[in-house]
Specification:
heterodimer; A: 701 residues; alpha/beta; Rossmann fold; Helix Hairpins; two-stranded antiparallel ribbon; elongated; B: 253 residues; alpha+beta; Arc Repressor Mutant, subunit A; SH3 type barrels; 3 domains; six-stranded antiparallel sheet; 10 helices; flat
Chain lengths: 701, 253
């Protein structure tokens, strides 16, 4: 089976070309060892495998994407490269084309987005371009699905004549002479046909290639040649090669593109004059963010309600197979464990799909780059990228989609830092804890400032930890800030929906399976070991006594439910979760917590909103929610405002839920970072809470 | 620009009045008639028409001045005249008196857009190393007799040599070198030095910011950083800390 690689700059319309070439037969896979995904598919009506490389500007390996792309070409040796080029940005796009030609595998040049070039007043002479550069050139208009049959045809033709020749004619004679010398030496050792390309990479000083070449003599020769060239041209070798490539491209451009000067300002620059205006830019940005938030959480809320009630209905339906009051384990596993767990995952789905819809629209239209442009100064101050702002904002709603939104960051280091600090933005699931506790312990005029204080602490901690990580563990690699502001597009419905679904599906597949497993585990922890038969029989006997007694029905009901609550409390205390709570009590006492809070925290790891209901169970007030006054009065009896504040503080800083950790694992593609996040947040929460509690006690609070 | 259409002769009157007013502050009908070589009675008619259009302040027996609007229209006519005359002399090598009278005929028919193009073209011919003075002289020569290939070769070599020496002396003169982070939006800069190092330097070059390339600074972000530039026909945003290390020559527009 022939393998064809699809390469191109970011924003060249590679995805549409990929979908156009493969139709629907594609699947998304993960490339080993890195986060960057490589899509694979089969070209329509052929048996050619199509591999979609990440969008890159150059083949020099200075970013994760470029390294993946280069290694894919280098190690897997595809038979042909289809190079997607944005016709309206020809000069810069051709830079990568030259590098691909240097690599030597036959290249088919795909001039995409011809309509944009025409709108710019450019007429590209395809025939001449093909002759000048010595490549087959095919025009397409990706979003109108035009030109793909021709592209496939020309791929077939090119494959027939495929032969590997590194093309370096665009370099000066002196560079080519140096390449000749190195190539001759290299071809003695390396028969792969890539000798000339390797020679070029040696001249460029590519560290990975240098490692690959064992022969010290060749490396020495390369160094001497570089010295000579640098002396001759009086500039560094990288500068020299880059300049020669661009000089060649300039020539090609002058020959093959006739441009009609248009007096009209392009629409994009008219939009930018408003959207990026000194005064209007920030208000417009804030409005856009507000709309994203509204769409995600306000429109999503009723849908979440539907999902919740659908699962409640399903749970009731399944429970109804067992007789009333049955203690069947299977029923409990199905209803509380699996349906509860799966429901817990799916309940976020409307949010996530809506959020990705909003983000897809922002990205596809080109506004995302503008938002990053506006926010970059602020984010740069804390060592992040302008694009980090959006995930952090979404983090106030839910960390899971927020972490997934970090995908818009191209640079791995920026992405990881953002991902790691996002949980510190106080998410929606923590709100029930605050709304339960604040009214119980603080006078009403303190309610709003208290809530505000909690949110602010979260933001400050996120800023400090981001900054701290940037000067410690993420210090080494530096990639300069260079962000293209692509022309605005009107996003296509189909493209946006595909974009949205691609991401939503991943959430379901990967995070879903993990969350499901952990839900079952947590269910088991709070169920086993069960109370001894004797204890259960004792409770049953007590129930019997109440029912048999002379009391009025209403009184009986009250006593019965009190008894149920007591039994639930004892079961939890007896279960592994309860024991865990007791077991960790010595550790959490410095924070002012007892085993009841400990047990609730174990439950809260599944999801923070579980904290309130678990606390309800261990205080035997039955099903409690954040408005429960009986739970509040119990809390007031047992704790003081300082402990209450510490509970909120710990809930704020510790990892919001296992879904967050699961998604971090999925998005960073590494357990290391997921564990770092979990342990880091837990330790941070622990030490800060201990400090606050101890200092508070010393201060006599 | 004036929206009203003035007849050719009214434009001529306005032009003449302008030239007199520039020197004397005010014009007399007699002087106008003398310059235009017409009878005083026809001047009166024309002045009345111009006054009706609110271009001149005119009452019989009083001195004539241009209104603000009249000044603008007159300047436009004069500019068209000058540009055309310039083109005829500098590019087509036509002698001055003939150029003047032909420009006088042409100025009424040519739109402002075309005049702008003419200006640019003259500028281009003067600046482009492949054109310039000697090239114009070559045109003179061409009009006389067909040149030999030898002549062309010599001319090209000479041009390249001149270009190199100009470039060097230009460097020595250090014509207004600026750092890219200090350039006002709307200006264009030709990159001359790149003091960045390592990956950043390399990245900048790969994105098209090579020495010699022309960059237009488009805008600064609302918060003061980063900066949006146009290079190789696309828009790129960069931080000031990096742009600080790139120098270039400010190009006039």
């Amino acid at each position: 089976m022939k393998m064809i690689a699809l390469a191109g700059n970011p924003n060249a319309g590679k995805t549409t070309v990929f979908n156009g070439l493969t139709g629907t037969r594609q699947h998304v896979g993960n490339y080993p060892g890195v986060t960057v995904e490589i899509k694979k598919g089969v070209i329509k009506k052929t048996d050619f495998a199509l591999v979609d490389l990440p969008g890159i500007y150059s083949l020099t390996p200075y970013s994760e994407e470029e390294r993946v792309a280069r290694n894919m070409l280098w190690k897997e040796n595809p038979d042909l490269i289809v190079n997607v080029v944005d016709s309206s940005n020809l000069e810069r796009n051709l830079y990568l084309t030259l590098q691909l030609m240097e690599f030597g595998i036959p290249v088919v040049l795909n001039l995409n987005m011809q309509d944009l070039a025409l709108a710019k007043g450019w007429k590209i002479d395809t025939k001449k371009l093909s002759q000048t550069m010595g490549l087959p050139v095919v025009e397409t208009v990706g979003h109108k699905n035009k030109g793909f049959d021709e592209l496939i045809k020309s791929v077939k033709v090119a494959l027939g004549a495929s032969q590997r020749v590194s093309q370096t004619a665009h370099f000066s004679d002196s560079v080519n002479r140096a390449l000749d010398i190195l190539e001759k030496k290299l071809s003695k050792e390396n028969a792969s046909g890539a000798s000339r390309w390797l020679a070029l990479k040696l001249l460029e000083g590519d560290p990975d290639i240098e490692q690959e070449i064992a022969n010290a003599e060749i490396k020495q020769t390369a160094r001497e040649l570089v010295n000579d060239l640098e002396r001759e041209h009086n500039k560094e070798i990288e500068t020299l090669l880059a300049e020669q490539r661009y000089k060649y491209i300039e020539g090609v451009f002058l020959q093959c593109v006739s441009s009609k000067l248009s007096f009209k300002k392009p629409l994009s620059s008219k939009i930018d004059a408003i959207v990026l205006n000194k005064y209007a830019g920030i208000p417009i940005f804030l409005i856009m963010m507000y709309l994203v938030f509204q769409l995600t959480f306000t429109v999503g809320e009723p849908m979440m309600g539907w999902v919740e009630s659908a699962f409640a209905w399903l749970g009731d339906l399944i429970a109804s197979f067992w007789p009333e009051g049955s203690e069947s384990l299977l029923k409990s596993l199905l209803v509380d464990g699996i349906i509860g767990g799966v429901g817990g995952v799916l309940v976020f789905l409307p949010n996530i799909l809506l959020l990705f819809l909003a983000i897809s629209i922002l990205e596809d239209s080109g506004y995302m780059a503008r938002a990053a442009f506006i926010m970059d100064r602020l984010m740069n101050k804390i060592g992040l990228h302008g694009k980090s702002f959006i995930p952090m904002l979404i983090g106030f709603g839910c960390s899971v989609p927020a972490i997934m939104a970090t995908r818009t960051l191209d640079n791995r280091r920026d992405r990881l830092v953002t991902m790691l600090v996002v949980p510190l933005m106080s998410c929606g699931a923590r709100l029930p804890i605050y709304t339960l506790i604040i009214p119980a312990f603080f006078p009403s005029k303190w309610h709003a400032p208290m809530l505000w204080l909690i949110y602010i602490i979260g933001i400050l901690l996120a800023i400090i930890s981001a900054k701290l990580m940037r000067v410690t563990i993420f210090k080494g690699e530096t990639v300069p800030f260079m962000m293209e502001l692509p022309p605005y597009h009107f996003p296509s419905l189909k493209g946006t929906l595909i974009h949205m679904w691609d991401r939503g599906k991943l959430y379901l597949q990967k995070a879903g399976t993990l969350i499901l497993g952990l839900s079952i585990l947590l269910w088991a922890l709070s169920t086993f070991p069960m109370l001894s038969k004797e204890r259960i029989e004792e409770y049953d006997a007590q129930r019997e006594t109440i029912v048999q007694s002379e009391l009025a029905d209403s009184l009986q009901a009250i006593q019965l439910s009190a008894l149920d609550n007591l039994q639930a409390e004892e079961s939890v205390e007896y279960s592994a979760a309860g024991r865990l709570g007791k077991f960790i009590e010595p550790v959490i006492v410095p924070m002012g917590f007892d085993w009841r809070i400990g047990t609730s925290l174990v439950g809260a790891f599944a999801a923070k909103e579980v904290f309130v209901s678990t606390l309800g169970v261990v205080y035997s007030v039955g099903d409690a929610d954040e408005e429960s006054e009986s739970l509040r009065s119990k809390l007031k009896k047992n704790y003081d405002p300082l402990i209450a504040f510490c509970i909120m503080l710990f809930s704020l800083i510790s990892a919001p839920c296992m879904a967050t950790i699961a998604v971090t694992k999925r998005e960073s593609n590494s357990w290391k970072w997921a564990m770092f996040q979990l342990i880091g947040l837990t330790l941070l929460a622990y030490f800060i809470t201990v400090a606050v509690y101890q200092i508070g006690r010393l201060a006599g609070l | 620009m004036s929206e009203m259409v003035l007849s050719k002769s009214l434009e001529d009157y306005l032009e003449v009045i302008y030239h007199i007013v520039v020197v004397e502050q005010a014009a007399k009908a007699k002087d106008i008639a003398q310059k235009m070589q017409v009878k005083a009675s026809s001047v009166t008619g024309a002045l009345r028409q111009l006054a009706e259009r609110d271009l001149v302040n005119y009452s019989p027996y009083d001195q004539i001045t241009l209104t603000r609007k009249g000044m603008e229209v007159a300047q436009d006519v004069v500019r068209r005249h000058e540009v055309l005359k310039d083109f005829l002399i500098k590019v087509l090598s036509i002698d001055e008196s003939e150029a003047d009278s032909v420009a006088c005929q042409m100025e009424h028919a040519v739109t402002t857009e075309i005049i702008d193009r003419f200006t640019k073209f003259i500028e281009f011919v003067e600046r482009c190393p492949r054109a310039g003075d000697s090239w114009i002289k070559g045109f003179d020569y061409y009009c006389g007799e067909k040149p030999q290939a030898d002549y062309c070769r010599k001319c090209i070599t000479q041009t390249v040599e001149n270009f190199e020496t100009n470039l060097k002396s230009g460097d020595e003169m250090n014509e207004s070198t600026v750092r890219l982070n200090q350039v006002k939006p709307g200006s264009r800069v030709k990159i001359t030095t790149n003091k960045l190092s390592g990956v950043t330097a390399r990245r900048f070059q790969e994105m098209g910011l090579t020495i010699g390339s022309i960059v237009k600074v488009e805008r600064v972000a609302p918060l003061g950083d980063p900066v949006e530039i146009i290079v190789k026909g696309y828009n790129l945003s960069l931080r000031k800390e990096d742009l600080d290390k790139i120098e270039g020559i400010l190009l006039e527009d």
